[in-house]
Design brief:
Blueprint: H1 4-13, H2 17-25, E1 31-32, H3 33-40, H4 44-56, E2 60-62, E3 66-67, E4 73-74, E5 76-79, H5 91-103, H6 122-140
Antiparallel strand pairs: 1-5, 2-5, 3-4
Helix pairs in contact: 2-5, 3-4
Length: 165
């Protein structure tokens, strides 16, 4: 069983929207630090700091080095998918912020949204969320399809605080 210190270090590694975005970028294909920095419009030293944090916590793994365009050694990194089951304390604001960063600049037709109000018992809510999680987990754990297009899904469930009980 992992120590509390190890669990806390892993949670800290996932406590950054930028690191979560790096994991998403490296989920379906390995990317070098330069590629990550270019895509996220970061200084390579900044992205390397975050990449190293994710590697040391086991969320990214380095693949075999390769030669870049000018012959320089490049290390591609790939997500280990271990973040999927890792609990992050107070994750909701972090995940919402990450989602907002990821959709920034997308056209409205590039985002599919479903919103519905429900009135369910606690038991039925738990059943619904369990079923939804099982479906999402099934797709999340599948190997990427060769002809597939990388997409992202964000789901939030919250109590209605408007007073409509």
């Amino acid at each position: 069983m992992p120590s509390d210190e190890h669990v806390q270090a892993r949670a800290r590694a996932l406590s950054s929207p930028l690191r979560l975005r790096i994991l998403r970028l490296c989920l379906h294909e390995p990317r070098t630090n330069k590629e990550i920095a270019d895509i996220l419009e970061l200084n390579p030293a900044t992205s390397l700091h975050h990449v190293r944090t994710l590697v040391s916590s086991g969320f990214l793994s380095a693949e075999e080095p390769r030669r870049g365009n000018r012959g320089a050694k490049e290390v591609p990194y790939r997500s280990t998918r271990q973040s999927w089951g890792t609990r992050i304390p107070d994750a909701a604001p972090l995940l919402v912020d990450t989602f907002l960063q990821e959709i920034n600049g997308l056209e409205p037709e590039e985002i599919q949204v479903i919103r519905v109000g429900l009135k369910l018992s606690e038991t039925t809510q738990k059943e619904m969320m369990g079923r939804i999680r099982a479906v999402i987990e099934d797709y999340a754990m599948r190997e990427p399809e060769v002809d597939g297009v990388a997409t992202s899904l964000f789901l939030a469930h919250h109590l209605d605080v408007t007073g409509n009980k």
